[in-house]
Amino acid sequence: MFGFNPWKREHSSKFFSEYRTAFVFGQGDLKRLQPFINKASQVVFIVWGFKEPEGLTAYAAKKGIKVLRVEDGFVRSVGLGAAHTFPLSIAVDSKTLYFNARQPSDLEELLNTYEVSAEMLQRARECRLQLIQQGVSKYNHTAQTDINKIYGEKKSKRILVIGQVEDDASIQYGLEAKMTNNDLVRAAAKEHPECEIIYKPHPDVLGGYRKAFSNPMDVTDVAKVVTEPLGIVDALQTIDHVYTMTSLVGFEALIRGIPVTCYGSPFYAGWGLTTDRQPNARRQRKRTIDEIFAISYLVYPRYMNPDTGEHIQLEEAMKILIRQRAESMELEGDKKRQALAFSEAEQLYKQALNLVYQPGREQVYIELLNDARQYEKSLRLIEEKQRQNSLPDSLYCEKGIAYAGLGHYQAALSSLLKVEKKSKRQMLALIRLLWKIEGPSDRLLQATEETLKMLDVDFSKEDIMQFAAILNHCGHPYKAKRLLREKQIEPIEVPYLSLAVNFDFDQLNASTYSEKVVVNQLIQSEGQFQQLLTTQKKIGIVLEATSQEALHHFCQKFDTLIFVTKPTFPLVDRNRSFVIFSAIHPELHEQVNLSQVELLLCNEPGLIHRYPHGSDYMRTLIERGVKLESYPQGLYRELVNQLGRKPSDRELLLFWIVQQTGEKIAEEQILYSGNSEDKDMLKSYIVEGVLQ
């Protein structure tokens, strides 16, 4: 086998299981190969592309040795070849490569002579429609894109010009005229002056893997040049016509019913479906799109399962590709989530789960539903499975994750504790839940230490830092520091406030100065709310504003106002004090004037230990004069035990007030419509027992 890159060799051998393969390094010396050739009863030369040593073809012809040429197939992978992504399919040709228009290939001969049966035609049609529906193309390395954000509003007919690698063999062997990508763009613009021209350069060129011989920016006067990552399937949306030299994208357009103009002679040109600027006299037969699809996608290529090495058909290859795309999207979603880009992560998870759902793959689908925070849908599927059979450990884990996401904490804990065979996913979910509802408990410490002993599990840096934060919170700072040092994590990388400060304490490193400022302020602010409740007599509590007028009238009665909902008017009254009870998150406070906020109460406990987003935002609040106080862990645990679920912010606030003051709240102190699910619980905190 000649011309195969080292990373391709083992994988490529599996495509040729009928042979015992041997790879020739570099160009190879035919004289040195002669002894090995003489020993073999049968010899076949397999060449990647046209990368054979000089004289190989003549030598093979003289000796009667068969030569097979190999290229990537038409449904290849989730990723670019230049990025060393293994292919699902290859094209094998005994005459020449399929893109060589100078002489007939096996594919061209099949298109000229092969009689497609009615059964195969039906199969081809079904596969083609499935390919369109699932958005499969040769390369599938980009996430789905809202094309309107890239192309803009469509105001006229659109021509998509497909850029190629200009020194690629498909152009050298498939295009007679000397032409660059920019020449093609200007030709399309000249022939369609009334149309919008969109130019998509080749991804290998944009990615820096291959050299560009013409600068895409030189044609911005006649075309919109797309430089963003954009998959072919998305690129073809809203397109009315495609211009190409020899690109496979032309065929991707044809199978979607889009007219194509070819300046070269790709394998799909010359059969009556394309507008051809380079005639090919050898191609005389008229073919339908399903006939060309059947021959070029079902008959001609070889497909292989990359996990098992088994030869498969196109249908199975598409299933594998869809699974790989979903896994790729999920991994990208994990990266976005770690970078705190939660909305982007959720969108990727949703795209992934929509791809993979099929009977028999409910486990993967349910995991993705939970990752996409579609907990109710996840629970419905789990409960349906539970009615049919007893649940496996993996689904008890997912049931617990879904319950936790919906705030049903006791049900979540019960499900997670039923899991007998521990897994990384189950233990991480259990630890996060215990840390939230119990705080630094013996059960949390035991679960964390048990998880750290799972030797065969590869934990991320974020997981390790979370474990260290828990150890620190549970009173084991030295264990936490030892764990971080073992994993070579620097203090500046740690987002958890108390952990970062304790980890850095011995070194007196300035890298955690900001964390020290925030931690000191949080410690100093403990008890501020209790002091406010005892010193301020005229306190109003805005649980929910019924109307702007009612809110304004209510606020006039009190010197101090506590808002559970975000204030709907500017906080500019210097005669009153304002307290906000909410999550500590920048997006929530962007529209609130915090200059007059006396106290910001966090709706979760353990802010010093559990807040995972670093100190920057909280330090900004502190520098603006805002005092911060975290919800008391003991009160949070007590209320969760009472309810068995996640408390609402209204319940949390009123419970805190009642516990601190030792008495119920007067009804006239509260503004609330009384139309929520937690109404009955809220009544227990009110003197009159009725909310108006």
TrEMBL record:
Domain of life: Bacteria
One GO BP: polysaccharide biosynthetic process
Name of this protein: Beta-3-deoxy-D-manno-oct-2-ulosonic acid transferase
